[in-house]
Amino acid sequence: MPFERYVEPGRVALVADGPLKGKLVSVVDVIDQTRALVDGPGSGVPRQQIRLNQLHLTKFRLSYPFTAPTRVVRKAWIDAKLNEKWAESQWSKNLANKEKRAGMTDYDRFKLTAARVKRNRARTAVFKSLKVKAARSGAFGKKKVPKTPAKKQRTKKAPTAKPAKK
């Protein structure tokens, strides 16, 4: 699979490190091999330079000219409805779930474990009943192959009584 997420003007990225961690920014210009000029008008990030190893590139890309001013970036951000698209993405949902789990108390974790046990027991009971039903109908488990008639065993012929020599 070829690489598809390039550091380019308009590429939307998630800040992974530093004081802006978790905020969305858009790359406005590439300064050098390790830094980029970013702007995040939709997420409250002022225009600034940031190291590329602090960014996680997303699949989203805005369309605006090279080194565009903040007002142009803001207009492209709003026109693309980037905040709504980000909220619907699986990446955003996973981050939200991670925050929820981090904020759980001991009792919340206990309740979650109890609910999982209850769910898994119900799931296992249904699976076993379906398995038994399928086994009875012959659709699951060892196939019932009709037995072939047994072959006659080869035996030596009984010696016939030869006439005695006189």
From TrEMBL:
CDD domains registered for this protein in UniProt: eL14
Record carries keyword Ribonucleoprotein:
yes
Query: Could you tell me which InterPro entries the record lists for this protein?
Result: Rib_uL2_dom2, Ribosomal_eL14, Ribosomal_eL14_dom, Translation_prot_SH3-like_sf
Q: Which residues form the Large ribosomal subunit protein eL14 domain?
A: 46-120
Q: Which keywords does the record carry?
A: Ribonucleoprotein, Ribosomal protein
Q: Where is the composition biased (Basic residues)?
A: 141-166
Gene Ontology biological-process entries: ribosomal large subunit biogenesis; translation
Q: Name one GO cellular component term.
A: cytosolic large ribosomal subunit
Protein name, as recorded: Large ribosomal subunit protein eL14
Q: Which organism is it from?
A: Euphydryas aurinia
For this protein's source organism, the top of the classification is: Eukaryota, Metazoa, Ecdysozoa, Arthropoda, Hexapoda
